[in-house]
Design brief:
Strand content: 25-35%
Number of helices: 8
Amino acid sequence: MSNDTALLFGQFLRAPGLVGAIAPSSRRLAVSVCAPVPERGEPIVVELGPGTGPFTAEIQRKLDGRGHHLAVELNEAMAGRLASRFPEVDVVHGDAAELSRLLARRGLPRAGVVISGLPWAAFPEKLQHDLLDAVGSAMSPDGAFTTFSYIHAIPLASARRFRALLAERFEEVVPGRTVWRNAPPAFVLHARRPRP
């Protein structure tokens, strides 16, 4: 078991409703989830729930030193490991519900892209609403939001509720392909243009 897998699994055992994963995401899932990160300009990219950093690495590869990458991680142990592994990333040990305040504190405008590794299907309804409110108010009008869900969570009421909330909160929601080479398999959801 790798150090990242051991850390993630240990944190999952402590708080499964907050961590939501037992192993780091695969590179294939990271490429699919991070597809909206632009390869030009100086974008502001926010990453929610980066965990041990598979999406962080892909975002950094695509940014290649441009823009600003803010990674918000609620778990202190994972935030610490992420900050030491990616010194070029602005890692915050904090709550995604405070996203607008975190951006304002840094003098940054709204995010153009929000990449989420949060376990939406594990969250109760109020938390889903609160976090999507925070995401929508922190995004530019033409911004992109991407997240994923494990395939086994598709039939869960909380996962169906989350997908309905996305459709309410964004003008466009497009499901991506299932990434079978991930443990467990996952599918990606791309949303664009948050509704005011």
